[in-house]
Amino acid sequence: MNEFEKQIAGICDKGLYSLKIETLQVNLGLRCNQQCSHCHLEASPQRKEMMEWPTMQMVLKAVETVDCKLIDLTGGAPELNPNFRRFVKALCQEGRRVQVRTNLTVLLEPDMEGLPEFFRDHRVQLVASLPCYLQENVCAQRGRGVYERSIEAIKRLNGLGYGSESGLPLNLVYNPGGPFLPPPQLDLEKDYRRELGQRFGVAFTRLLTITNMPLGRFRAELIRKKEEENYLQLLRKSFNPQTVTGLMCRHQISVGWDGTLYDCDFNLALALPVNHGAPNHIRSFKPLDLRMRRVVTGEHCFACTAGSGSSCGGALV
Ligand code: SF4
Ligand code: SF4
After folding, report:
1. What is the spatial distance between Cα 317 and Cα 297, in angstroms, rounded to a whole number?
2. pLDDT tens, 169-184?
């Protein structure tokens, strides 16, 4: 039993088990037009890993067998996958609601013309990273020029109804600029709305706060600054038992770019596939065996249970 499972033993005495599959998250590849300092997957323009069409076909087959509410596409920058639009269209034809995790700046890349309109036409929900409303903090994490291009992309999306029309949500994502927990989500949302509204007149639907995972580039930076142990201690001592029911691994499953199944995108970063006897590749996807699987946990799980909790959908409590 690892430290995390010891911590939750009073709540889940047989380990952490999933409850249902409401969301199927699909990682379309690790290539990204950015190279952010906190990226848990160490995505970058140099990465070659990419989901291929035959694997997407297996995902489409799996989707027919599972009664999930949402297909959540992530990466890297999922839009850079050459089969991205074909895959989204096929999912929509299956009648599935599709959500894309976009870094915004990719929408301004040369080969991406018409992508915002494609999103609107297919009623794709958008979750977009904007780790601060201040330029200097965004550029420190995500690179020079990213703030201005992100605002430009939000303006284009707003022009199509994103962030104001029902059915076209544009949720923004905050993550801390260092080894500390996010502030309360609703308070920060008010600040974002006021600052982005006053400065640029842009709108968004909701703000989601996500805790930095001690993985990938963020972990490398912690080690470099000799802050890793302090951060891990902060996560452990901020354990909040109320977050355990809502942990995202209990409500979703992640498909890696090569079809391997993971309990979450963080376990993907650690190359820790689904285990404990459940099928671990999309080709053998069986909802009944996966729905109530035992989740693979580790020290990093304390980032999901710290404070108000954290998930791809923001705070948990
Ligand atoms: S955090 Fe997102 S935008 Fe930044 S490098 Fe990673 S995948 Fe790309
Ligand atoms: S890191 Fe993944 S497996 Fe661990 S608690 Fe968070 S969502 Fe669940």
Report:
1. 20
2. 999 999 999 999 999 9
Mutation choice for ligand 2 from 239, 243, 253, 304, CB with most ligand atoms inside 8 A: 304
- Ligand number nearest CA of 43 is 1
Asked whether 68 and 20 are in contact (CB, 8 A), the reply is no
Q: Is the CB of 80 under 6 A from ligand 1?
A: no
65 Cα–ligand 1 center, Å: 31
Task: Kindly give the distance from the C-alpha atom of residue 4 to the centroid of ligand 1, in angstroms, as a whole number.
Answer: 27
Q: Helix (H, G, I), strand (E, B), or coil: what is residue 247? A: coil
On whether the CB atoms of residues 253 and 262 are closer than 8 A, the answer is yes
Task: Say if CB 41 and CB 30 are below 8 A apart.
Answer: yes
What pLDDT shows up at residue 139?
Answer: 86
**Among protein residues, the one whose CA lies closest to atom 4 of ligand 1:** 36
Task: Tell me the average pLDDT across 115-136.
Answer: 96
Q: For the whole model, what pTM was predicted? A: 0.97
Query: Angle, to 10 degrees, between the axis of helix 84-93 and the axis of helix 53-65?
Result: 20
The domains located in the chain, with CATH, are 3-305 (3.20.20.70)
For residue 139, what are its two tokens?
């550029």
> At residue 156, what is the residue type?
R
Q: Give the whole-angstrom CA distance, residue 312 versus residue 250.
A: 13
Tens digit of each residue's pLDDT (9 = 90 or more) over 214-269: 999 999 999 999 999 999 999 999 999 999 999 999 999 999 999 999 999 999 99
101 Cα nearest atom in ligand 1: 2
To test ligand 1's pocket by mutation, which of 31, 41, 212 has the most ligand atoms within 8 angstroms of CB? 41
Estimate the crossing angle of helix 146-159 against helix 185-200, to 10 degrees.
Answer: 80
